[in-house]
Write a structure and sequence with these properties.
6-stranded antiparallel beta sheet, about 25% helix, Trefoil (Acidic Fibroblast Growth Factor, subunit A), about 325 residues, alpha+beta, elongated
Length: about 325
């Protein structure tokens, strides 16, 4: 005996709309869409009507469901949405492209960040734009980092990434204070074109150069040891993190990270070096804080990093604020 036929959309069509909407009342909105949106045009209209202007996808963890939301749900209803919540399991690039293609008129986009998901800076690069009415950072149900949010709104230097203008207000719900630190570094960093550079200390007019043991400064003259390759290391070109490599030796420059319990002082063991043995407490990534067309602060990328500091003929990591900010200031001269 053969099994009975499975119910089809035509069977469901025979039910009164009141019964369908009663069923909808017992389901999550994303489950309604997943089950009924693509049955036929009649159900598509019913689903759009029931979902309305507000949709919460923040609790979705299943990959197939989040992919359905990106490829089918948001393009179908995006134009009607005014309030949307998602989480950081949604790929920032594919999500932003989906919202662009659906011509969304969002008033508020909430993004809930979870640990070990996409880097928060990618969302900042793809979704923050100058037309935003508000950018709000929330940690443990409290607004934090208002100055960081203002800097992110004002920052519009990276022309490699074109933000998607899909919402009037953007709210980041942070999972840890480290994400706030990442946004702070991102807001203070600037976009640089990859290439060969000479790096000049503003205070002395000397070049940074690679010596036998450490990176140091030398007299101002064109010298092969003064040329460094500066290259952005993330493929999507969003985090603005760079590596510095000596053009002659091809040594990657690293910072030895001082212990957190060290007093706030200049630590000679934190010299920027290409020869010291790397350990778990070293850093080879840097960001550049732009002061004007040529002048920059250079900051190692780790949570407690201060700026680079000229001390004598050596370049070290300063663990304290110095009154003479020129000690931290460098000019970048592009060679090619």
């Amino acid at each position: 005996m053969s099994p009975p036929p499975l119910p089809t959309s035509s069977c469901l069509d025979k039910l009164p709309r009141e019964i369908i909407y009663t069923i909808f009342d017992y389901l999550n909105k994303h489950d309604i869409a997943y089950a009924f949106l693509q049955l036929n045009q009649s159900f598509q209209l019913s689903v759009k009507y029931h979902l309305g202007e507000e949709l919460n996808l923040a609790n979705i963890q299943q990959e197939n469901l989040s992919q359905f939301c990106i490829t089918s749900l948001l393009p179908a209803i995006g134009f009607n949405l005014r309030y949307l919540s998602i989480n950081s399991s949604f790929n920032p690039f594919t999500f932003s492209k989906s919202m662009e293609n659906s011509h969304s008129n969002l008033d508020i986009l909430n993004i809930h960040f979870y640990a070990n998901e996409h880097d928060i800076r990618y969302y900042a690069a793809y979704l923050i734009h100058r037309q935003l009415i508000a950018l709000i950072l929330i940690y443990k149900n409290e607004i934090v980092g208002e100055q960081i949010a203002h800097r992110l709104l004002d920052q519009n230097e990276n022309e490699e990434i074109k933000p998607i203008q899909c919402t009037n207000s953007l709210v980041f719900h942070l999972s840890s204070i480290n994400e706030l630190n990442l946004l702070k570094q991102y807001s203070e960093s600037s976009y640089l074109s990859d290439g060969l550079y000479m790096i000049e200390c503003v205070l002395t007019g000397q070049w940074l150069t690679e010596s036998k043991d450490d990176l140091c400064v030398m007299s101002k003259k064109l010298h092969r040891d003064c040329i460094f390759s500066i290259k952005q290391i993330d493929l999507a070109r969003c985090t603005r993190e760079y590596e510095l490599v000596s053009e002659v030796s091809q040594h990657r420059l690293t910072v030895l990270i001082p212990l957190e319990e060290e007093e706030e002082r200049w630590v000679s063991s934190s010299i920027l070096s290409s020869h010291r043995k790397e350990s778990s407490r070293s850093c080879s990534k840097f960001t550049f804080e732009k002061l004007d067309d040529e002048q920059f602060y250079i900051r190692p990328v780790y949570s407690n990093a201060k700026r680079l500091q000229i001390s004598g003929k050596r370049v070290i990591v300063s663990l304290c604020e110095n009154d003479n900010t020129l000690n931290h200031c460098f000019k970048l001269h592009r060679i090619s």
